[in-house]
Amino acid sequence: MRIEPADPTDPSSSRLLDRLSDALETITGDSGRASFDPLDVQGDGASFVLAYDEEGRPLGCGAYRPLAEGVAELKRMFALPGSKGVGAAILACLETRARADGYDQLWLETRRVNERAVRFYEKNGYRRIPNFGKYAGRPEAVCFAKILSEPVSRGG
């Protein structure tokens, strides 16, 4: 598997984002499309990545955008069903990229009913925080944050 930056408006990206929106609609009753603008994850301080299998087929995507000083918001995390380990690999890639972009924390929102996503983020070191921004006061939403540690030095 390889993970690399991509244009969120390219056809491969659009197909994955559409699959994510369809899955979210089924799970939560909301596709999440209104909460994502591809322009937000392009340019300085933002990132959009795709994961590919050995044959170059897209397996998943993820992104972050600037939110506040030292904080980026994780957006549009998705891995095709059955693609074991892809989500964790994308998340690790985005955390590394966010650290390199100078972020100290990653924040995100998901729906409480999306229990698989809630478990995924908790398993990967994200902790619940008070709902932020447009999610404040929305009981169906749950927000998470992770403090990004410094990369381990491999000096010698």
* Poorly predicted residue ranges: 152-156
Strand order of the biggest β-sheet: 1-2-3-4-5-7-6
Strand content: 25-35%
Calculate Rg over CA atoms. Answer: 15 Å
Properties at a glance:
single chain; 156 residues; alpha+beta; Aminopeptidase; seven-stranded mixed beta sheet; 3 helices; 7 strands; disordered C terminus
Question: Explain this structure to me?
Answer:
With 156 residues, the chain is of the alpha+beta class. The chain has a single domain, classed as Aminopeptidase (3-Layer(aba) Sandwich), CATH 3.40.630.30. 27% of the residues lie in helices and 30% in strands. It contains three helices and seven strands. A seven-stranded mixed β-sheet has the order 1-2-3-4-5-7-6, sandwiched between helices. Helix 2 (86-100) links the parallel strand 4 and strand 5 (105-111). The protein starts with a strand and ends in a 9-residue tail after the last strand. The model is unreliable at 152-156 (pLDDT under 50).
Element layout with pairings:
Layout: E1 2-5, H1 11-28, E2 47-52, E3 58-68, E4 71-79, H2 86-100, E5 105-111, H3 115-123, E6 127-129, E7 141-147
